[in-house]
Amino acid sequence: MCGIVGYIGFREAYPILIKGLHRLEYRGYDSAGVAIINDENKLSVYKAKGRVKDLEDYARDKNVTGTIGIAHTRWATHGEPSNANAHPHYSQSESLALIHNGIIENYAVLKTQLINKGYSFHSSTDTEVLVQLIEYIKQLNKCDLFAAVQIALNQVVGAYAIAVIEKGNPDQIIAARKSSPLVIGIGEGEFFLGSDASPIVEYTKKVVYLDDEEIAIIKRDEDPKIFTISNIERTHEVKELEMNLSQLERGGYPHFMLKEIFEQPETLKNCMSGRINVEGTNVTLSGIIDHKDKFVNAKRIIIIACGTSWHAGLIGEYLFEEFCRIPVEVEYASEFRYRNPVICPDDIVIAISQSGETADSLAAIEMARKAGAFVYGVCNVVGSSIPRNTDSGSYTHCGHEIGVASTKAFTAQVTVLTMMALAIAKEKNTIDEDNYHSIIGELQNIPSKIERILKLSNEIKKLSLIFTYAQNFIYLGRGYNYPIALEGALKLKEISYIHAEGYPAAEMKHGPIALIDNEMPVVAIATNSAIYEKVVSNIQEIKARKGRIIAIINEGDETMKALADHYVEIPATDECLDPLLTSIPLQLLAYHIAVNKNRDVDMPRNLAKSVTVE
Ligand code: F6R
Predict the structure, then answer these.
(1) Is the CB of 611 under 6 A from ligand 1?
(2) Are 8 and 218 in contact (CB under 8 A)?
(3) Whole-Å CA distances, 8 to 111, 162, 174, 380
(4) pTM of the predicted model, to two decimals?
């Protein structure tokens, strides 16, 4: 989704802004732009549809000198991707330039009012309305930029992270946020701005996260001043970033997605580290310990999430119900927020999100908190909005995920949910001691088993060549592997643009089996489980209709080898941990098919890494 970079200091701003835009490319975008105040106090805006490289080409012969600037990658919401719709947007007199993430919902009304006052517009964006409104207010009230932004933000409805600079005022950036993240990097006599920390981390690890409805005045050589839109001054703790630069580099891999798939043995160790004791016998999560009574007495758990995180939530449902005997509902945050759900004070709401910034999840959290539920976040990005808006939580600690298609964040989410289920079950006495120890023991074997699966990457690549030109795919799984069927299908859709659907295997005969013919690849997860025989029967039904079976099986499963057209053999594990293994070959299959099709694997079309608008 849209990305923001800003710089004010003593260095040339342009190279920092361009590098920052490259760092933000992973979020998904369709145009980019930069605004700079040069040494003669001229405010110049350069924009280009397409990639940051297109912007660089366009700006090559332009004057881009200056030590203050703002830059943006746009993911179209209002108006198609085009030069005109790209940010920054000038105000009418071209004395202000503004970049914006989010959506101004009442932009149409404001636009009409401004047109009636003689303003004209050059784009279809809501953002241009905001910058014109700020200029109008500034001129009307004869106030400074900060005051004008403050008044304007009191008039807009919607979500924003903005940065504004002003011709003739090369010493300040005004930045503000509501429901869209914004972070200020604190250097020595210089400051950075980012919609996340990735454009900042190579210059400073000290950051301040703005809260909703806060405006910052960022001046060279002065500590940033922060006020609310109702003019209350705020102070903020300076936080230390956990991110490091190597997480932002491909490290020899052709794509971030492949790097992140291969990082999983390490990321899962990090995720478990400090939570499973050195003897490997006990799991402790501080977020659970601190609120033990809440979890022990919970009448229900509601899991809210979107996309891949929602699939992790479905696995959470199986885990919490099996081990903790607490009823669980798993909800799409986008649906939950707009119906009138029954939420009780003794419900626990678990919000799962890689980015911690997903607009729908944030809105659902707000609703749950208002209804008195205890809200627990499972997030990856430290300091992001969800951890700051929940009562407690656990980070997944898998490092910065850049590939738009989530891989390592998913397995880390499932690992955290597994540890949560074990910890709660222990407190509630709903798990047998031997089973508890045996699952914890096996959980620690997962990273090395994933390493073994990763060695099959070339074998999976060969398999992928057979199916690269398939038009459709069906993914089947049951029990703990039903969510993996959904997740495998989503991975393929996202990065290869092949239509794929996941189903619980036994549901096929209730309709979808009509789709099966000798052209239909069916990826069937048929590893050991209590219902293995039933899964095999479901696969027989597909085979009888000439579907082409690609089976994920446990090593040495002769029955399935005889039945499947193709198979990938993976190590066996405890049934409840199987998703951590079965997800890996499906990530690799999607990856290799997408590469065969020459797709933009890390930045698939139309997608954004962090969905900060609803
Ligand atoms: C798919 C994917 C998305 C996200 C979804 C939620 O690979 O990454 O489906 O899972 O947009 O995002 P987060 O987890 O950041 O809330």
Answers:
(1) yes
(2) yes
(3) 31, 15, 11, 29
(4) 0.85
- Do 473 and 482 touch, CB atoms closer than 8 A? no
Catalytic residue among 449, 491, 493, 609: 609
Are 73 and 195 contacting, i.e. CB atoms less than 8 angstroms apart?
Answer: no
pLDDT bracket for residue 77 (50, 70, 90): confident
Contact 49, 81 (CB under 8 A): yes
Closest residue by Cα to atom 7, ligand 1, is 405
The verdict on whether 2 is a catalytic residue reads: yes
CA neighbor of 127 nearest in space, from 186, 77, 167: 77
Both tokens assigned to 516: 């099966």
Residue by residue, DSSP assigns 430-474 as -S-HHHHHHHHHHHHHHHHHHHHHHTTHHHHHHHHHHHTT-SEEE
**Does residue 435 carry a pLDDT above 80?**
yes
C-beta 380 within 6 A of ligand 1: no
Q: Check pocket membership of 406 for ligand 1, CB cut-off 6 A.
A: yes
Q: Does the pLDDT of residue 444 top 90, yes or no?
A: yes
CB 536 within 8 A of CB 480: no
Alpha carbons 421 and 328: distance in angstroms, whole number:
12
Pocket test for ligand 1, best of 27, 261, 308 (most atoms within 8 A of CB): 308
Write down the domain spans for the chain. 2-247, 250-454, 456-603
Instruction: Give DSSP secondary structure letters for 301-321.
Output: EEEEE-HHHHHHHHHHHHHII
CATH 3.40.50.10490 matches 456-603: yes
* Spatial CB neighbours of 435, under 8 Å, sequence gap ≥ 6: none
Ligand 1 atom closest to 409 (CA)? 14
- Domain 2-247 and domain 456-603, same fold? Reply is no
Half-sphere exposure of residue 391: CA atoms within 13 angstroms, side-chain side: 18
Q: Which two tokens stand for residue 91?
A: 């105000």
Distance, CA of 52 to CA of 66 (rounded, Å): 19
Residue type, 587: Q
| pLDDT score recorded for residue 242 | 80
> pLDDT tens across 25-41, in order?
888 889 999 999 998 88
Task: Judge whether 271 counts as a catalytic residue.
Answer: no
Rounded to the nearest angstrom, the distance between the alpha carbon of 407 and the centre of ligand 1 is 10
- The arrangement of strands across the sheet holding 328-332 comes to 328-332, 300-305, 347-353, 374-379, 392-395
Q: How far apart are CA 399 and CA 260, in angstroms?
A: 9
Neighbouring C-beta atoms of residue 122, cutoff 10 Å:
11
Q: Right CATH number for 2-247 from 2.60.40.1930, 3.60.20.10, 3.40.50.450, 1.10.10.10? A: 3.60.20.10
- Whole-number Å distance, alpha carbon 355 to ligand 1 midpoint, is 8
Strand ranges in 562-611 using DSSP code E only, listed in sequence order = 566-570
Q: Is the pLDDT of residue 179 over 90?
A: no
Q: Is the CB of 613 under 6 A from ligand 1?
A: no
CATH number given to 250-454: 3.40.50.10490
Pick the closest to residue 484 from 275, 346, 315, 334 (CA basis): 315
Q: What is the 3-state secondary structure (H, E, C) of 328-367?
A: EEEEEHHHHCCCCCCCCCCEEEEEEECCCCCHHHHHHHHH
